[in-house]
Amino acid sequence: MSSERPINERFNEDVHFNLVSPGPPRYRTYTDKPVRYLTVVDKQDGVVLGYVWANDEDDAAAWEPREAAGPRAFSEGSIWHARLEGAKGRGILPSQALAELSADPEGVRGRVLPDSLIDAPNATVVEELAKGD
Length: 133
Fold this sequence. Notes:
alpha+beta; five-stranded antiparallel sheet; 3 helices; 5 strands; about 20% strand; elongated
């Protein structure tokens, strides 16, 4: 008897790997370091929809929807995420992206509240702020 095993034909061919793109460049979405954030309000009634925060040290920035604003806050988030992705794609720092958002404050339904740039100890503080009310 031969000690050789027959080869399964499925495993007799070369293996090919497809390189999958990681997608568009993105800032990190969490930091435990100090952040600066802007408040975004509804254009019509002034209700706070959420916050856009940034931290250069960890190359982090994100949109934090305000839970009390409901679906409006989540749908408005797509424009702020897209604007942050665009800024990252151009290779600018998160703080520069925040400055751009402040200079061009209009979103779809929301806008950046003038003079709303505030410091926070970390991203968790902004998340908790968004959960409040």
